[in-house]
Write a structure and sequence with these properties.
The complex is a heterodimer of chains A (490) and B (100). With 490 residues, chain A is an alpha/beta fold. Chain A is 60% helix and 6% strand. Chain A folds into three domains: 99 residues; 194 residues, no CATH class; 172 residues, TPP-binding domain (Rossmann fold, 3-Layer(aba) Sandwich). In chain A, helix 2 packs antiparallel against helix 3 and helix 6 packs antiparallel against helix 7. Chain B is mainly α and 100 residues long. Chain B has a domain of 69 residues. Chain B is flat, with a radius of gyration of 19 Å. Chain B starts with 7 loop residues before the first helix and ends in an 8-residue tail after the last helix. Classes of the chains: A alpha/beta (490), B mainly alpha (100).
């Protein structure tokens, strides 16, 4: 650790102490290197379900090695508080992991981004403090390069902390999920960010102007809140991925400042992962980053609906739906956030079992932005023990809809709206969608005819081949499955 | 005492290579596993615990120790929670026939 070396030099460390530090430094360096290798392998093995658990295990081994390496650092001399910290962290982390329902995964992820960013921001703040208040009793003036990276690290960490807390609040329904916008919001946001960057720049060239540091922190924390205010629930997958990326970058920059390659590498891996996921999410919505962050999706007023020729949706009953499903040879189920809200995944599994038992080919079409975070639907369906080879990505399955007898939409809306293909005035125009409308029969389970998240009508519901099942997703799927089970016994 | 310029160029090389390696490796992760991917990378990025340990344990006075310990708590929460939830999710992914 760069600063530590200088402390030793400034304090006139004895040769003996220097030698001791060489051994422990060697051990720490080796364990850090080992941890890096483990982390890369962990991500590599995570690519396929067959090796994924092995990947998670090797990740844990790497983390253990890194923690032991850090504890053995020669400058770490007081252990009691560290272990108290471990105990408290475990006391929070374990119950969260064990008792959390799978439908709450997006919230937990947002919260953990907040924790990660908090750690990064605090370590950066602590490092800055040590320049002026350290055990060697010397004031160190960091090089502008070091100071600029430190300021950037703290800025990213702080804005990710509050931003993730806001995302958590929205996902947990503690805050309204609708976008919160006001006139001139972008200008206000950009000036707060600009103020934070100005503080960082001034600090870079005048690192001793310590009073700028709290201002930087406050502005960054405020910017995090303001950044997430205008973002609606449907954009959460992108935002969570983006915050993931920021948290990683923040850890990586911390490595630059602390001269620690393990931090640089692990942070860069996390940053890359978040970046890839946010690109996937943006592509799946045919939108750009700036559009997601400043677009306030959902506030867009839908164009004047042609009231006159508005078609009427045809409602149906679970009995009729069960009859149609029974006669089908292939069924594709399209789940969406509504399935998660209603916690309907286990009932979907019952329906899947009933149909599969009758020889019906049941598949699931998963849109990349279905749900509130990347991969959300897959995890829920896997929880309900639906085999993962039945879960197909949008691009893989879209070609199958013309041959499909029934497309069953459970709690999804915008991702199946055909307006995205042809209606240039629609806010979701150009977004790749699941071709549910090409199936011979479409069944849509929906609470009511209220428009979905994007606030636009979905013409899928008024197509000639569409039947609507109104009600709570869990109740409706359960009723259909029950109907099928009864006809089975007859 | 003015500190010298950090070894920025070698750090940038490490960062660049790690970022490209990360992009290549993660690009191959099946979309099926994007949620576990996020919770795993989250646990990995809690590697900042290493820096938090040094801050909390080096005896730099109350302020540094306090924020160091808070950072240790936050990072440990992510490590423990992140790896456990990832494993819980991955255990659920099964192929037809009950085999993984």
């Amino acid at each position: 650790m760069l600063l530590e070396t200088h402390f030793l030099a400034a304090a006139g460390a004895s040769l003996e102490a220097a030698n001791r530090s060489t051994y422990t430094t060697f051990f720490s360096t080796t364990s850090y290197l080992f941890a890096c290798a483990c982390f890369v392998l962990a991500l590599k093995w995570l690519s396929q379900p067959a090796t994924a658990r092995k990947g998670n295990t090797i990740g844990q081994i790497g983390m253990l090695a890194a923690v032991v390496g850090a504890l053995l650092q020669h400058n770490v001399i007081h252990y009691e508080w560290i272990f108290i910290g471990f105990a408290i962290g475990a006391a929070i982390g374990v119950p969260m992991a064990v008792f959390m329902p799978m439908t709450a995964v997006p919230q937990r992820t947002a919260l953990s981004h907040a924790f990660g960013a908090l750690a990064a921001a605090l370590v950066g703040t602590g490092h800055y403090w040590l320049y002026f208040h350290n055990s060697a009793g010397v004031t160190f003036v960091p090089h502008p390069v070091e100071m600029s990276i430190l300021a950037l690290e703290v800025l990213l960490g702080a804005l990710t902390f509050t931003g993730s807390l806001m995302a958590f609040g929205k996902l947990q329904d503690l805050l309204p999920t609708r976008p919160m916008v006001y006139r001139g919001q972008i200008i206000v946001n950009l000036s707060v960010l600009g103020g934070a960057i100005l503080c960082g720049t001034l600090l870079t060239f005048n690192p001793t102007w310590w009073w700028l540091f709290p201002i930087l922190l406050v502005l960054a924390l405020a910017f995090g809140v303001m950044l997430i205010l205008p973002i609606g629930g449907g954009d959460m997958p992108t935002v969570i991925a983006l915050l993931n990326s920021y948290a990683g970058l923040s850890a990586s920059f911390m490595g630059f400042v602390l001269d620690n390659r393990l931090l640089i590498i692990a942070g860069a891996l996390d940053g890359a992962s978040g970046l890839i996921l946010s690109i996937v999410m943006c592509k799946a919505m045919n939108r750009s980053f700036t559009n997601v962050l400043f677009g306030a999706f959902g506030q867009v007023q839908a164009g004047p609906a042609a009231e006159g020729d508005r078609k009427v949706a045809k409602p149906t009953t679970p009995e009729e739906a069960a009859g149609i499903l029974e006669a089908a040879t292939s069924v594709i189920i399209i789940p969406g956030y509504g399935m998660a809200v209603a916690q309907a995944q286990h009932k979907v599994r019952e329906l899947y079992d009933q149909l599969t038992r009758r020889g019906v080919d049941v598949k699931f079409a998963i849109h990349p932005v279905a749900g509130r975070m990347p991969g959300h639907m897959n995890v829920l369906l896997a929880e309900a023990e639906i085999p993962y080879d039945r879960l197909l990505e949008m691009d893989e399955i879209n070609g199958e809809f013309p041959q499909c007898d029934v497309a069953m939409v459970i709690g999804a809306n915008d991702v199946v709206n055909p307006a995205a293909r042809h209606d240039k005035s629609s806010p979701i125009y150009g977004m790749p969608i699941i071709d549910a409308d090409k199936a011979k029969t479409v069944m849509a389970i929906k609470r009511s005819m209220n428009p979905g998240f994007a606030g636009i009508d979905n013409e899928l519901y008024t197509l000639d081949q569409t039947l609507m099942l109104f009600g709570d997703a869990k109740a409706v799927v359960s009723a259909v499955a029950k109907e099928l089970a009864e006809t089975n016994h007859r | 005492m003015h500190l010298p310029m950090p070894d920025i160029s070698s750090h940038l090389y490490v960062f660049l290579l790690a970022a490209f390696l990360g992009l290549e490796v993660i690009k191959r992760v099946s979309p099926l596993l994007h949620t576990p991917l996020m919770s795993l990378t989250n646990a990995i990025s809690a590697i900042s615990v290493v820096a938090a340990i040094e801050l909390a344990g080096a005896g730099h006075g109350k302020f540094a120790t306090t924020i160091g310990v808070i950072a240790v708590v936050a990072a440990t929460t992510n490590i423990v929670g992140g790896f456990m939830i990832t494993d819980r999710m991955l255990r659920m992914f099964k192929k037809r026939g009950g085999q993984k």
